[in-house]
Amino acid sequence: MADPVPERTPVIEVRDLRMRYGTVDVLDGVTFSAHRGEVLVLLGPNGAGKTTTIEILEGFRVRSAGDATVLGIDPAVGNEDWRARTGVVLQSWRDHSRWRVRALLENLGRFYEPYATADKTRPYQVDELLEMVGLTAHASKKIGTLSGGQRRRLDVAIGIVGRPEVLFLDEPTAGFDPQARREFHELIHRLTDFEDTTILLTTHDLAEAEKLADRVLILAGGKIVADGTPEQLARSVAGKAEIRWTRRGDHFVHATSEPTRFARELFDQWGDEIEDLEIRRTNLEDTYLTMVQKHESGAPAAQTDFAQIAQETS
Q1: What are the ABC transporter domain coordinates in residue numbering (predicted)?
Q2: Nearest by Cα to 108 from 164, 192, 174
Q3: Which letter does DSSP use for residue 6 in this model?
Q4: How far apart (Å, rounded) are the C-alpha atoms in residues 79 and 81?
Q5: Were both Cys, which of 108, 179, 272, 278 would link to 244 (CB 3.0–4.6 Å)?
C-alpha cells in the first residue's frame, strides 16, 4: 500500500503542463497545486482545456510535456493502488442500464475492499452512500428507469464509493434541480470537512463555484490566467460598486468606488425617504468575464497567483 501524502505536501501538483494536438497547444504551461481538504474549481470557456487537464490528472490521457503528480504519483503510471485512492465523476455514465442501483454500487465497492487501511475504511457502506447522494428511495430501481437527475446522483455515488482521497468532478451538477444542487453542495462540504478529501471540479455555474471554491483557477487559451480565492480574484478586478435605491417612487443608480461612504451620505441627506437600497459589488461572475475578455482581446495572459501574494504580504 502507498504511504499517505504528508500534510504539507501538495496532493495535486502540476508544473508547466503542456498538451499539443498536431500544431495546436491545448495546454500551454499550466502550473498549479492543491492541498489536502481543498476545493479547487477550474473555470474557463469551452475549449480552454479544462477537461483535458482533468483527464491528464485522472491518468486517462498522456500529456505532451511537463510534470504532474496526484498523491505523489505520476498519473501516467498510476497503478491499481493509486486508482483506488482517487475518484472520478464523469460528465455522464451510460452503461449498466439493466443493473439495479444497490447491486451496481455493491459490485463496484468490492473493488476497493483490498485497499482499505487502518486510517481509511473502503468502500462506503451502500446504505450510507445511498443516503449521502439522495438515492435511498431508488435503491431497487433499474438504472435505465432513473430520471436524468437521479442518474447524475448515481454518477456521484460511483465516483465516491471507494472513499477517495482525491475526487475529480467534471460538470457534476449538470441536470440537477435546485434541491439536488443544494444537497450536492452539502455533500462536497461533508467530504472536505469530515473526510479531508481534495476536490478538483469544473463547472459553468459561477454561483456554484463561488459557493464551493477554496480557490479558483481561470483557464483561458490553455493557460492559467488567475489563481486565488473568489474574494481575492474579485478584489483584483474590482471597479466601482453599483448602488441602487428608490426615493419618492423614483429609481436611482450610482457607481462609486466608496459605496459605504456614499450610502452613509445618502441617508444623511434624505433619511427615511431612501428605500430599497442595494449595493452590488464585483462578484466571481464579473471577475471571470473580465479576465476571459481580457485574454480574448489579446492582452498578456500571465498567471497571477493571488493566494501567494496574500501569503507573502501577511
Answers
A1: 12-246
A2: 164
A3: P
A4: 5
A5: 278
Q: Residue type at 41?
A: V
**Residue with the three cell numbers 485574454:** 295
CA atoms within 13 A on the CB side of 117: 12
> First and final CA of the chain: distance in angstroms?
39
**Residue with the three cell numbers 456614499:** 262
**H-type alpha helices, the chain:** 50-58, 80-84, 101-110, 126-133, 148-160, 178-194, 206-212, 230-236, 259-270, 284-296, 306-313
